[in-house]
Specification:
The complex is a heterodimer.
Chain A lengths: L8 E10 L2 E11 L4 E6 L5 H9 L6 E6 L2 E2 L5 H7 L1 E4 L11 H6 L13 H14 L16 H13 L5 E5 L9 H12 L3 E5 L3 H7 L2 E6 L2 E7 L5 H9 L19 E10 L2 E9 L3 E6 L5 H8 L7 E6 L2 E2 L5 H6 L4 E4 L3 H5 L6 H6 L7 E2 L2 E2 L1 H14 L16 H14 L4 E5 L7 H16 L3 E5 L3 H7 L2 E6 L2 E7 L5 H8 L3 H8 L1
Parallel strand pairs in A: 3-8, 3-9, 6-7, 7-8, 13-20, 13-21, 16-19, 19-20
Antiparallel strand pairs in A: 1-2, 1-4, 4-5, 9-10, 11-12, 11-14, 14-15, 17-18, 21-22
Chain B lengths: L24 H17 L6 H26 L7 H14 L4 H30 L3 H19 L9 H6 L3 E2 L3 E2 L3 H13 L3 H11 L1 H6 L4 H27 L10 H11 L11 H20 L4 H27 L4
Helix pairs in contact in B: 1-12, 2-10, 2-11, 2-12, 3-4, 3-5, 3-10, 4-5, 4-10, 8-10, 11-12, 12-13
The chains are: A alpha/beta, B mainly alpha.
């Protein structure tokens, strides 16, 4: 273990909050020269905030950073780069309408005569760089938008490497790479040259091959830095998931027989959705777990009629559905109502009242010859509002002025009032307080008890475990597991989530 | 490290650099075809007098559209174009400075005023995060008000030297009014060889990626508006030369026509794609279209209708051509 004085990077007590949301709290991390250290954590554990702080995109609220012994407080990407920290971002920071060569030298092109950028010099230099890092087959003049995703990922990595940083941050560098050996070879070369590397990935096998130590983040805190040689995968999952999770007061219902299937999906194919089959029964709450970007978002959207599947069937109450828009899903016999995740963008109409927001899908039922009666509207909104424990006095307020929790309640009330028997809830409790969560859980439970069906995705595993009877796990665009009963434990699910199914089984048994 | 077996991705031809990605070639072809039609309808079309007239008509719009292009490339819309043109025009009318040096001073004033207005819009959009339409609409209304204060009703006289020389024919062949657009085109080609030129495209295509790539996004936006404002000033200067008089509402017709010229020139209104030279030719094509329809005997009542249809057809065809050109790659 490198001692603190010789460390390349030293993070001490780093905290960052966005409004009331604490992204990082008192995070401590040390990386020595030539060390590859892994950073592990579930969704929302604070990994991306940490990357942003290191790359100069955001500044921490408190704490100190030291790079090679000197205070490091970058105010921009360029300052970070000048200090010797570069990052290959998960979301890829290449500008698509520029060429490979131009991207490599952003923001300053190589200059020729009279200070004007020289395409010739840039192409030659870019060719050298690409050759050196083993991607010489890319055309330097090719526009980045014409490259396949894997090639873009390689280019992103090479761009970060070619600045010869003393600390290189690789954020999910293998997400789009089929051939990881290329990356491993480069990482090992850098290691020999004394570059410190922070390697963020959820693929434990890769991490074990490259890294000596791993720092585990949970809910914005650095839980510990472990020697990977001494920690089993099970230990790591336990640390990622945490202990002493507060259980919801709602106890999952136990049933004897399998319920009548309501929503049946067969071999659904679409963008980021591969061969998905699932069944949600009458009165059943089925959970769905998955890391960011495993296809769950796309799957929910297909089921809600937003987008067309390439192949496969969606059956509702035994009838084949052809959904061309969300309205179709809502109007189908039985009905499917979707509560999207981005409530500010896709859920609420900020300038309308809460009552207006709740009654939107059923306005035709509340109107006479096309004119909506405000009185009937207000009355209609009351019942579902009560279901989700939304106080009557909020109904006349503009929904934009309500707290996030109350907005979420209103949106769920809307889904309930729409009369749809099947609810698709995408992260319904994201960013709401504990009391609101309870109210939402009760509303979901009541809906199921009254014969409705619910498919709920959540980024919080304890929530899924508390709420649902079965839990589907999505990984790499597929449903990789259907877990029920006593198998629904966090440490086991984390293993499945990260695509380490065998390991998860080993932990389980 | 690279193995020799790896097949080389073929490099695109050089004309598909940043500037040539949405080549103005299609617009130029359209212009030539239309000029041919014009020549069929009107035997005088090929005279240098007619050509000079056409270029004189098109020059202010071409310069204004060139400015608009810079803002559009950086993913914005600039409505202040109206205000800047009007202010430049009324200043030229109430403050005629005669002789070549007077003209140069007037020119500098127009450019300076334009850059000042542009920096106001740019500051609001880039540093205050105001939506471009809202910010520039406010700036436009303020500028229109200022133009009315300077010259409450149409009138005034533009300096004789400007109105004569800037609309003349040089060596009885080259229209003088083409000089400024050509210089602007030249400057644009130089800009394309600077980091600012590259940044303009990057910001317009993907602000987040540009930021993470170290591009100064805010400064780039601001400069796009400042340069655009300066070009509107130049456009106002040329407009004054052409009309020889002042009108506080002189800029109004340029608002929508500038967007039409930009779109016709192959620049994507969504930003990040296209170029300034296309807009120059696009503006010339729009003005030529009017002439062709008129000389083709289309009643003036129908000209607007035809112009709109032709514009849409041209843009759609241009898009199709460019897509088939770039669409052969995965």
């Amino acid at each position: 273990m490198p001692d603190a004085t010789a460390a390349t990077l030293q993070m001490q007590g780093i905290s960052k909050s966005y409004g009331a949301t604490v992204a990082l709290e008192n995070v401590t991390l040390t990386i020595g020269p030539g060390e590859v250290q892994a950073l592990l954590g579930e969704n929302g554990a604070g990994k991306s905030t940490l990357v942003k702080i290191l790359s100069g995109v955001v500044r921490p609220d408190s704490g100190t950073l030291r790079l090679n012994g000197e205070v490091y407080a970058p105010g921009s990407i360029l300052q970070a780069r000048r200090s010797g920290v570069t990052t290959a971002f998960q979301e890829l920071s290449l500008v698509q309408n520029l060429s490979v060569a131009q991207n490599l030298f952003l923001p300053s092109a190589l200059k020729g005569i009279a200070g004007l950028s020289s395409t010739k010099a840039m192409h030659a230099a870019a060719r050298d760089i690409l050759e050196r890092y083993g991607i010489g087959h890319l055309g330097v003049a090719t526009q980045v938008s014409e490259l396949a995703l894997a090639e873009r990922q390689r280019l992103e990595i090479v761009r970060a490497m070619q600045f010869k940083p003393s600390l290189l941050v690789l954020d999910e560098p293998t997400a789009a790479l089929a051939d990881v050996q290329w990356l491993f070879r480069l990482v090992r070369e850098l290691q020999v040259q004394g570059t410190a590397i922070l390697y963020i990935s959820h693929r434990l096998a890769e991490i074990r091959e490259l890294a000596q130590r791993a720092t585990i983040l949970r809910s914005g805190r650095s839980v510990s830095t472990v020697d990977l040689g001494a920690a089993s995968d099970g230990d790591i999952f336990e640390m990622m998931a945490g202990h002493g999770v507060v259980r919801s007061t709602v106890v999952p219902l136990k049933r004897a027989s399998r319920p009548r299937p309501v929503l049946v999906v067969n071999d659904l194919e679409g963008c980021n959705v591969k061969g998905v089959s699932l069944t949600v029964g009458e009165g059943e709450i089925v959970g769905m777990a998955g890391l960011e970007g495993q296809g769950q978002r796309e799957l929910f959207r297909l089921l809600a009629g937003d987008g067309q599947p390439k192949a496969g069937q969606i059956l509702l109450n035994g009838k084949l559905l052809r959904l061309t828009c969300p309205r179709d899903a809502l109007r189908a016999p039985g009905g499917i109502a979707f509560v999207p995740e981005e409530r500010k963008v896709e859920g609420i109409f900020a300038s309308l009242s809460s009552a207006n927001n709740i009654t939107l899908p059923v306005l035709d039922r509340l109107s006479t010859v096309g004119l909506v009666s405000p009185h009937r509207e207000a009355r209609a909104a009351k019942a579902p509002a009560k279901e989700v424990d939304l106080s009557d006095r909020y109904l006349n307020f503009r929904i934009g002025n309500l707290s996030g929790g109350n907005q979420q309640k209103a949106i769920i009330a809307r889904a309930l009032l729409s009369g749809a028997k099947t609810l698709l809830l995408f992260d319904p409790t994201r960013g709401v307080d504990v009391a609101t969560k309870e109210a939402i859980y009760h509303a979901i439970r009541r809906h199921a008890a009254n014969g409705g069906s619910v498919l709920v995705y959540s980024s919080e595993l304890p929530e899924l475990i508390a709420l649902s009877e079965r839990c589907l796990v999505m990984y790499g665009s597929r449903i990789v597991a259907d877990v029920a009963g006593s198998d629904m434990r966090e440490s086991y699910l984390v293993g499945l989530l990260t695509g380490n199914a065998q390991v998860a089984d080993a932990v389980s048994h | 490290m690279a193995t020799l077996i790896q097949n080389t991705v073929e490099a695109p031809p050089p004309w598909r650099g940043v500037m040539g990605r949405h080549p103005a070639c299609f617009t130029l072809m359209l212009y030539i075809v239309m000029y041919g039609m014009y020549a069929m309808f009107d035997s005088k079309a090929l005279s240098s007098y007619t050509f000079t007239n056409l270029i004189n008509n098109a020059s202010p719009l071409a310069l204004a559209a060139a400015g608009q292009t810079l803002v559009v490339l950086a993913r914005g819309f600039d409505l202040s174009i109206v205000g800047t043109l009007s202010i430049a025009n009324v200043i030229m009318a109430v403050l005629p400075l005669d002789g070549p040096w007077g003209a140069l001073a007037s020119f500098a004033i127009c450019v300076g005023v334009g850059a000042l207005v542009g920096s106001a819009s740019g500051y609001l959009v880039a540093y205050r995060g105001v939506q471009s339409v809202a910010a520039t609409l406010g700036v436009m209304i303020i500028c229109q008000g200022i133009a009315l204060l300077i010259l409450p009703a149409p009138g005034g006289m533009v300096a004789e030297w400007v109105s004569d020389e800037m609309t003349s024919t040089l060596f009885s062949l080259v229209p003088a009014s083409i000089i400024l657009p050509v210089i602007v085109a030249g400057l644009w080609m130089l800009l394309g060889k600077t980091d600012l030129g590259t940044a303009l495209y990057a910001v317009g295509a993907d602000q987040a990626a540009a930021e993470l790539s170290g591009i100064p996004v805010k400064r780039t936006r601001l400069l796009a508006y400042v340069m655009a404002g300066a070009l509107y000033g130049v456009a106002g200067f040329m407009l004054s030369a052409q009309t020889a008089t002042g009108d506080p509402n002189a800029g109004m017709p340029f608002l929508l026509l500038s967007f039409a010229a930009v779109a016709l020139g192959g620049t994507s209104l969504a930003g990040g794609q296209g170029g300034l030279i296309g807009s120059l030719i696009g503006a010339a094509t729009l003005m030529l279209m009017q002439k062709v329809l008129f000389s083709g005997g289309v009643s003036s009542f129908y000209i607007g209708l035809f112009q709109g249809v032709l514009l849409i057809v041209a843009i759609v065809i241009g898009r199709l051509i460019n897509r088939s050109r770039t669409g052969d790659r995965p």
